[in-house]
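User: Run a structure prediction on this.
Assistant: Running it now.
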Amino acid sequence: MIKDKSIYIQNIYYMLSYAYQCLQQKQYEQIKTEPFDNIQDLFAAILAIGIAGQVKQGLHREYVDKEETLSSLRGKIDMSSSIKLKLQRKAQLACQFDELSENIELNRILKTTSMLLIRSNEVKRENKLKLKKVLIYFGHVDEIEPSFIRWDQLRYHRNNQSYRMLMNICFLVLDGLLLTTEKGDQKLATFLDNQKMSRLFEKFVLEYYRKHYPELRARPSQISWEVDDDIREFLPAMQTDIMLTYGEKTLIIDTKYYGQTMQTIAQFDSHTLRSNNLYQIYTYVKNKDRHHTGNVGGLLLYAKTDEDITLNHDYRMGGNKISVRALDLNRSFGEIATQLDEIVTRWIFEN
């Protein structure tokens, strides 16, 4: 898939900037023009800027439970432990109290991710130095074992909302790049796995249309099954990646990111579209266009691979247009944007 690594990685930054809008803020502008040879260096540059901004705001602190043996009372007494101290003839009390601390999970994740990037041979010296500079303010923050992090349990509110994008970048590093060798050592992979890239690709396309085409209603949406007797019990949910609506017209987009786009039929030495992808988009379109108006279309949008196959096909199926396209992520971002614009022009505004 990767012909020019620097262009591809730069486009990952653009996808991230759409997926996480705060990356479009002024302090990140220098990253747009900076060449990156690998994704680890890109993530290090983003985190160095983001953490520096967070340090200026102040690291988020929360009250944490602490237990200490003290010469004077603080908080409440742990009676059983204090009695043991008394029997040992120690003039001390076992105290339990709350303390406002920076040593919380959000900051631990930032420090752990930064340390992994600093240890990586793929990160440029200048970005390592920037990370080391901001980590001076994390002296009282511990590192955390990545496997202990429960990403789905992180909670954001008004006081820690600025951490959300930083946590998403840390997630991509710790959950998308971190590998454990046979010896138990930890190292970072060169690229994100297909699952993480697939989710990023989907979110990028959605946010691109939301930003540049506010007149469209761009959203992920559920489609109800068109059944004759109104009984839908046990039917699986039909959750679209992206649905673009403009007046009476609707375009359902299903984004796909694979190492290999086509499926191979060995006995016939031929290639076809992945059948489950086509069945899925066909089902979405037909159930959405329950009145058979033909105003609902479907698009399978693949991230282009290095396969010597051009995906640029339109099919008419029972009155509905279902198309297949490949978005080439090895081109300049301007060309990628043009491809996305052409989709809206052809499927929404021209038809």
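The mean pLDDT is 88.
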